[in-house]
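So, could you explain this one?
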Amino acid sequence: MKELDYCICYYAEQNRKGIALNLLTFGYENFAKAVHVEKIIELENFINNPDFRKPEYFIANVQKFAFENLLDAIKICICFENYMKAKLLLNNFVIHKIIDSPDYESLRKEQNKRPIELKEINAIENWKKVDDQDLYYLPGLTDKTLQFNIMLNKLKYQRIIELPVKTKNIVIKLNDQRNTLHFLTGESGTYDKERVEELKTIIEFVETELFILQNQLVDDLNLSKEKKLKRNHS
């Protein structure tokens, strides 16, 4: 049967894996384009340079990074948002918001506190056919996906997603920064060794945990090894 686009990920295991693979791959493509990721070695060398504290040297070298603060925070958060959705999906949880309807009221409220399993949605109402069309959908779900903050901050979501505490706290900080008005000026974000270490922490997570999951999905779906993610920054 054919499914509405946003429901296709729930119809079969192959669909879930295919959508999860797309989420991870697209997420990393954004992550790798972040200047603070792509040029992490250059950034580290800049901060460790003996002339780092000299105004002329600092101003001449910081601009390429400072002007990308907002965009880089968005790119990095997209990567982690997609990673969290992929993890939920692969564990048979829904990543779409539940409709505002009396039949689903209890689950809809619960979704703000814990992941909802697909079988809980199906127990209320299973797949339905769109009138006069060869299309099927899950009536309990909207086409809107879960909020980033819920997946990141709610304990029961993180029990499934399993972001390391250190990594999660760095992503929380980035998410807070991208939602702060002064971030738009390029003035937020102190450049020091701590910031480099935070960036290296999230890079290490992405290039281990996300890569492992993405590469395994490529194998599971019998796709070309060329689709496997590889390190892209310098």
